[in-house]
Amino acid sequence: MERWQWLLLAVPEMAAGTGTYFLLKYRLDSKWKILAKCMVTWMAVCTAAAGVILQNANPFGSLIFWAMVLFLAADGLLEIRFPAGATVFALGHGLLIVWYFLQGGLHPMTAAVFVVLCLAAILLFRRECRKLWGEKKYPYLIGMLFYLAFLMLMVSMAVLLPASVGAKGFLPAAGAFAFAVSDMMIGKNVLVGLSRRKNDFALCLYYAAVLAISLMTWG
């Protein structure tokens, strides 16, 4: 099976799951929305597994596969207990960071890009930092800063991947960038609130990101 043929199956399923989630969340206010949300991420898990199998390898030995499994678990946990979901997401990002490193993610400019991205993230979240500091919620502030640093490390390695491996690095780079933007938007929604349209866009961006990254197992 070719990648485009798989996408003909995966994209409609993910779109249907996303639409069902929005329906259950906004129109019916149903607790079953968690299943619809996880159904979409499940397709990313299947995409990663299928790509590994088509390379005649075992999915259980793939970092991308296990990262998708963690993201699937995190999607469910976020609906139940946000800190637990965020922690599992961080573990998934950790696996992706290792994968980017193994793909040649360390570039002479990685450290410089990481510092610039961290400064930009802190600037974007300065309002939230002041809010958590003023409310003396220091553990949440430290957790947020560590999570931002994790995201920026992943992105700094990913965006320079094309310089190390060529054109095939553009897809995981785009996926990592979209993932970071989505996560930051979700963080802002939790801390200060975003409009429904922006919140929904962040979720769709996240689904696009995990699909893009999971497709890297297809060679």
Task: Tell me what the structure shows.
This protein has 219 residues and is an all-alpha fold. It has one domain (3-218). The chain contains ten helices and no strands. The chain has helices at 3-27, 33-54, 63-80, 82-102, 110-124, 126-134, 138-159, 161-165, 170-191, 196-214. Helix 2 (33-54) packs parallel to helix 10 (196-214) and helix 3 (63-80) packs antiparallel against helix 4.
Descriptive keywords:
single chain; 219 residues; mainly alpha
Order of helices and strands: HHHHHHHHHH
Number of domains: 1
**Number of continuous helical runs:** 10
Sheet with the most strands, sense and barrel status: none
Give a count of the beta strands, DSSP E runs of length 2 or more. Answer: 0
Helix- and strand-based class? mainly alpha
Task: Report the end-to-end length measured between terminal Cα atoms.
Answer: 12 Å
Classify the beta-strand content into a percent band. under 5%
Molecular shape: globular
* Average pLDDT figure: 89
- Rg, alpha carbons: 17 Å
Identify the quaternary structure here: single chain
Question: Roughly what percent helix?
Answer: over 70%
* Contiguous runs where pLDDT drops below 50 for at least 5 residues: none
